[in-house]
Amino acid sequence: MKDKSKIDYSVYLVTNNELIPEGLTIYNQVEKALQNGATIVQLREKELDTGDFIKRAQKIHELTKTYNVPLIINDRVDVALSIDAEGVHVGQDDMDPVLVRKMIGNEKILGVSTRCEEELLGVINSEALIDYIGMGTTYSTSTKVVKRAPLGAQGVQALLKIISEQKPELKSVIIGGLNKYNIPFTLANCSYYGFNTNGVAVVSCIMGQQDAAKETKDIANSVKLGFRSSLSEINEVTSEEIQQITVSSNKPVIHFITNSVVKQFSANVCIAVGGSPIMSELTEEFCQFAKIPNIALVLNTGTPSTLSLNVYKSAIKAYNSQMKPIIYDPVACGATGSRRLIMEELTSVGYFTVIKGNMAELCTMAGVDGSEMRGVDSIMDLDIEKLTSILSVLAKNKRCVIVMTGKIDIVVDGITPTKSPRVAHISGGDPLMAEISGSGCALGGVIASYVASTSYFQAFEATVSAVRAYKKAGLKAASKSKGPGSFTIKFLDELYCNKEVK
After folding, report:
1. What positions does the domain Thiamine phosphate synthase/TenI occupy (predicted)?
2. Cis peptide, bond prior to residue 336, ω within 30 of zero
3. Would you give the distance in Å from CA 103 to the centre of its chain?
4. How far apart are CA 300 and CA 64, in angstroms?
5. pTM, whole model, 2 decimals?
6. 116 is catalytic
């Protein structure tokens, strides 16, 4: 067996025979995975008797040895020893790791599942030589019945922090609800906060797929993308002064899934600031769009239909899979029960870079009473200090930039790891901006143009720059206008003539 310190845990496949599509076998799925990026395999069989388990393990081991990949046997030390597998993995309710280590010796790999801080500390303080831990579940999963709530990204980071402080040599993989869509941001966020894991463990997104080869490639690419966005590669802004971000001269592409009432105006505003708009709700092309350099998605749920939810979710998954920015506008999410449910489901699907809304929309999202809402207009009245506190918690929980539009726009950074969230209060604009349809929605395209022109980890600076430019254009246009009609024209002119392009 290769040196244990050099084991690659990055794409850790856990088998599940019950998930395999009809017409395929566990051997088909495992070999396809090995051919396309799986770096370690765990054979998990809870129903087979000992003889059949050993026969299956022998065949799987022949495959893993062909590709020079370690085979880990779940729970069954006797099976592992009988086929000379490279290691054993045990859960909290399985055999004591101390006894397992005595049985398998120090040369083989020993992994242990942990679900909370108490269990992790038990591993750290164990007399057994434990090589790695499996942490989870990270997100909700249908693969396994779990008795605890998912850890979430923040829970995983809390456990990784303990490892880094108390036993940095201990390897780790995260497991539970991970797929090619959420892996990049999950790994990138762990790295950005300085708490690195060594890989991801996946089950259904390979074992349950008709094309396990393609899915394994996608998983491996997602892992590489997440690991590439490490802390060492992030140009973090340390100055107290917010860095000015401008729109790229390469014309960032902005994909709009937006309010049907404002599509033309949003497109014109986007062009005026230097972006290149696309309007599409064709799910078949989302994955192709997401691979375009300097692209961002504006997801505005202002005019939902019975078919919209699938379109929204498909877009989120496609853009998350490529770590491309999403600017989400949960229009009137507190106005009806249906809109609230759409917002709740979308925020549970994936990551957003920026969430933009008015006071009532964002208070609804934050769990504050947002019932005082008329259409898409907020009629709530909270002071700036209270609002900033609510938005800071929301930004931290959603790990994104929050923008609350109003007389004074509030921008809060939930991405950069600082002791307290960075906040910008931006004045300007003019009441005439509220007299034209779509001025709030069109801001999403401007933010997207700025965010797509820089890195994910400078989204706060980009968003502040975009909001300032928008407010400034509104103020200047109003001073030259007689009413909403002339203001619309002057506003586009001001955005175009005063755009910041790098």
Report:
1. 11-206
2. no
3. 41
4. 47
5. 0.77
6. no
Cα–Cα distances (Å) from 171 to 18, 32, 68, 122, 496, in that order, read 29, 26, 20, 15, 52
Tokens of 14: 């856990």
User: Which one of 190, 333, 363, 441 is the catalytic residue?
Assistant: 441
**Can you list the domains of the chain with their CATH numbers?**
4-230 (3.20.20.70), 253-497 (3.40.1190.20)
First to last CA, the chain: 53
Model confidence over 183-234: pLDDT tens digits?
988 888 787 667 889 999 999 999 999 999 999 999 999 999 888 764 334 3
Give tens-digit pLDDT for 75-96: 999 999 999 999 999 999 999 9
- Report DSSP letters for 78-115, one per residue: HHHHHHT-SEEEE-TTSS-HHHHHHHH-SSSEEEEEE-
List CB contacts of 24: < 8 A, sequence separation 6 or more: 210, 212
Q: Do 37 and 51 contact (CB within 8 A), yes or no?
A: no
Nearest-angstrom CA–CA distance, 443 and 471: 10
Rg of the chain taking only CA atoms, in angstroms: 25
- CA 489-490-496 angle, to 5 degrees, is 95
